[in-house]
Design brief:
Length: 205
């Protein structure tokens, strides 16, 4: 009997094994790989990073998937409140050098768990990407700006508006120019781990 497995093609990027990008991805994701019912899957922080990236893209106006925004925000929040995420957030916080963001980190620590989790990850990313530990002047500017605006974050957010132009489908098709594609099963035929262990949603969209 033929398996009734529904799937969709999603764009992925697969770096060559001898590139700097491959080493970077290996360092970030392999230590946190989880095996659920025999299937290796990325750890919790992978899903946080993926959804943050998609939501950032929406706010920057560089996406045609605005209609998917509410669903992606809710899925991100589901990951952010998983009990198993706390240890990874604590690890990310530990990677922020204490003297670098003396005002921002304590303020983030006092936020509700979902906001605390995602902003801790973002602060760590900024501190690492901007080399704030070796540039005290830039670190002071960033810390001052971030901490001063944190309380007004909701008022300052510029929410994107849906365009009246019909959006194009982003599904990969034969002959499309997507980087690469893989079939991601979303229904029967794949393991469905419990909500307490699964770090991300079962469907990607």
């Amino acid at each position: 009997m033929k398996e009734n497995c529904k799937a969709e093609l999603i764009d992925i990027g697969i770096p060559r094994r001898d590139t700097v990008e491959a080493f970077e991805q290996w360092e970030h994701f392999v230590p946190d790989l989880m095996v659920v019912e025999g299937m290796p899957i990325p750890g919790h922080l992978y899903y946080v990073a993926e959804y943050v990236m998609m939501i950032r893209d929406i706010f920057a106006g560089g996406t045609i998937s605005l209609v998917k925004t509410p669903k992606r925000v809710m899925r991100l929040r589901e990951v952010l409140v998983l009990p198993g995420l706390a240890q990874y957030i604590a690890r990310e916080r530990a990677h922020i050098p204490p003297p670098v963001l003396p005002a921002s980190v304590p303020l983030v620590d006092g936020l509700p768990v979902a906001e605390k989790s995602v902003l801790t990850v973002l602060l760590k990313q900024f501190a690492e990407a901007l080399d704030l530990d070796v540039d005290p002047g830039l670190a002071l500017c960033f810390d001052t700006l971030f901490s001063a605006n944190l309380g007004a974050r909701k008022a300052k957010a510029k929410y994107p508006r849906r365009s009246s132009t019909p959006s194009r489908s982003r599904r990969a098709t034969p002959g499309s120019t997507s980087r690469s594609a893989t079939a991601s099963a979303t229904r029967s035929g794949w393991p469905r781990p419990s909500a307490s262990t699964w770090p991300g949603p079962a469907r990607s969209s």
